[in-house]
Amino acid sequence: MGYTKPEVQDTKVIKFITEDKYRFLRHVVLLLGILTILSCSKDVTEYPGSFRYLKVLFVYASLVFMCYVNMNFLVPILFFKGRYLIYFASVFFLVVLSLTTLSNVLDMYFPVDNAFGGQRNHAGRSFFESIVILIPIILVTTMIKLFQRWMRDNQKINELNNIAFNMELNELKNQINPHFLFNMLNGIKSLVRTDPEKATVVIMKLSEFLRYQLYENNEDKAILKSEINFLSNFLDLETLRRDNFSVEVNSNTECKIIKSLFLPPNLFTTFAENAVKHSIDISGAESYVRINFEIDGDKLCFCCVNSKDPNYSSSSNEKNSGLGLGNIKRRLKLLYGDKSTLYIKSTITRYEIKLTIPI
Amino acid sequence: MNCIIIDDEPLARQEMQALINDVSDLEVLGTFGSAPAATSFLKEKKADIIFLDIEMPMITGLEFASELPKDTLIIFTTAYAKYAIESYDLDAIGYLLKPVEKTRLEKAINKAKSYKTLLSKDTEKSTIEGNTDDFFIIKSDRRFYRINFAEIRFIEGLKDYVIIHTEHQRLITAMNLKTITSRMPQKFFLRVSKSYVVNIKFIDSFDHQNIFLSDTEIPLGDVYRKAFFRLYSGGALNL
């Protein structure tokens, strides 16, 4: 036999106890279960005829009442908040109260005859017994609640760990690519010789680019303005590295909004990088990347279009960018759930993505 | 001598051309943005040296190099340090890291020039006629040379030849590195990379990447590094 993980496996039983879709069925099972146990109990079977069913009904009703009060009020309000002492006192009080009410009701409906008189003595003795029996039954429901909560917490912790892991992965991925940096320095070296003015501009762009990658990238939120600046710096720098390559970064939104809007950093970088990668034209013909930001009500719309060379495809590139795209999709899902939409349209000569996120 | 430059980045081509003109009299026949563009040029003309970038779309420099004729001398230019060892497997003359340092470029070009001269000689006739424990007898250009092992600084494998570097001369022989080392006393010579065998007597210093013999710098291969450290330091270094 193989070595099994010490974690709790997702078996059917556990799914039945914890998952929301079984909620109704769970309650049916609980209610039927209590009824079956009661019907078989000695206390009830001693009664003759229709009294028997009536008593079962009363006892059943009070027991179900206690269980549900426990599960829906006492456990969430007291037990889960750590007020254990008050919780146990309340359970005890609840049982005593219910039992007292029950015996009063029974007194009212059941005529006092000899047989019942004997029964009463018996019932008097069993009042404490009943408490001793009922409290564990109620605590079983507490256990179920506790177990559910524990399982859900476990799931949450796992999910959070996954997110943390992925974020770390992304951070690693978004670290400065040394290849890019050294090629950039080499290009600047060339510009210093031929066009010192331009070299100065490029050094400034590279500095801003690095500053964003080194600092703002690691913050939880970045201003949209600096995100846009980063993308246009990145694309401008890429134009130096290729012939016949043009880029555009546009936004029709007011500067004020762009400067005041905070977003998680690096949401768009993967798309821009992929656009650059896939717009390569093997014959050196015109290629372009165009990015547009638009704010529409409570939505930010990011659109990235790049040209494609039908003759160019690199399997290793596909694989890498596929990974990046998968990561960003997952990140968007974690950040926005179903509120973000990603639309991809690919033709032979053009590739377009449209990302809409709530703001 | 002439050369071509292949690099997908326009500025890198420009920079390389300018540097070559600065440090040498090489004629730059053309610059190309991709390997296929250079291939069609090379069908018409012949280049002595190719300055070749490695990371390029579609066909990388390494793939391109493996398809080149054997007498073409390759100098890799790249921002990636990790390709260094692989490039020596392709018998590249040199390996330049971008941004390129002038003196390194100069060295690489000079090396290429002297190899060109060596390779253009009638090397097929240069053979090892015999050896003792102390020397080889090599026949080259219808003359015999006695090469004392103690005078050999290092031996370099290049394509189908080995170049024996002594204190005074260089001799090229059609033979592979493995065969020649098997005829030499093992305790003086250490294999330090796929293409180099070094006489330990001439080693001045070394680090993790290179071995220095006065003004010569020899790359230390990943596979050979551990054994070299252990053997050369007599076990004192166990890195």
Q: How many strands in all of chain A?
A: 7
Oligomer status: heterodimer
Query: What radius of gyration of chain B results from the CA coordinates?
Result: 19 Å
Q: Total number of helical segments of chain B?
A: 7
Helix content of chain A: 55-70%
Q: What structural class do the secondary elements of chain A suggest?
A: alpha+beta
The major beta sheet of chain B can be summarized as: 5 strands, parallel
Number of domains of chain B: 2
Strand content of chain A: 5-15%
Number of strands of chain B: 16
Name the helicity range of chain B. Answer: 25-40%
Order of strands, main sheet of chain B, comes to 2-1-3-4-5
The biggest beta sheet of chain A, please? 5 strands, mixed
Largest interface: A-B, 23 and 21 residues
Low-confidence stretches of chain B: none
Determine Rg of chain A (CA atoms, Å).
Answer: 35 Å
Q: In terms of structural class, how would the helical and strand content of chain B be classed? A: alpha/beta
How does this model look, in words?
The complex is a heterodimer of chains A (359) and B (239). Chain A is an alpha+beta fold. In chain A, 66% of the residues lie in helices and 13% in strands. Chain A has twelve helices and seven strands. Chain A has helices at residues 12-18, 23-40, 42-45, 49-79, 84-109, 114-173, 178-194, 196-214, 224-240, 255-260, 269-278, 315-336; strands at 222-223, 245-251, 262-263, 287-296, 299-307, 341-346, 350-358. In chain A, helix 2 (23-40) packs across helix 4, helix 5 (84-109) runs antiparallel to helix 6 and helix 7 runs antiparallel to helix 8 (196-214). The two termini of chain A are 52 Å apart. Residues 1-8 and 113-125 of chain A have low confidence and may be disordered. Chain B folds into two domains: 2-120, Rossmann fold (3-Layer(aba) Sandwich), CATH 3.40.50; 153-232, Beta Barrel (OB fold (Dihydrolipoamide Acetyltransferase, E2P)). Chain B is built from seven helices and 16 strands. In chain B, helix 1 crosses helix 5 (102-120). Chain B starts with a strand and ends in a 7-residue tail after the last helix. The chains are: A alpha+beta (359), B alpha/beta (239). The interface between A and B is medium-sized, with 23 and 21 residues.
